[in-house]
Recover the amino acids of this structure.
């Protein structure tokens, strides 16, 4: 994960497959730490998962959604970016009950 972030940080463009692998691995870690189906976490175009205990979502738009780009997600997961800062500056769109992931981040 930090290898991908280092490339972005140095002004480069990381390999798409490496970004995808890092996003999927970090989302899997989130699900392992916070299992459940009440919040959908989306990192388009790479992956989306459901996590956090609470009301189970099955169809349609979930009651709680968190969405951001891959770089933002990986920065949050690695602890390079604070949840509150990412939400405040619009890099993360979070809506619904339990959509505050600050208790679960960083993942490392």
């Amino acid at each position: 994960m930090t290898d991908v972030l280092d490339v972005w940080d140095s002004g480069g463009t990381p390999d798409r497959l490496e970004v995808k692998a890092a996003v999927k691995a970090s989302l899997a870690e989130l699900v392992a730490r916070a299992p459940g189906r009440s919040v959908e976490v989306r990192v388009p175009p790479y992956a989306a998962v459901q996590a956090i205990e609470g009301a189970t979502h099955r169809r349609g738009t979930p009651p709680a959604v968190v969405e951001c780009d891959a770089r933002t997600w990986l920065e949050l997961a690695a602890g390079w970016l604070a949840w509150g800062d990412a939400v405040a500056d619009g890099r993360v769109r979070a809506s619904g009950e339990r959509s505050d992931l600050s208790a679960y981040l960083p993942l490392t």
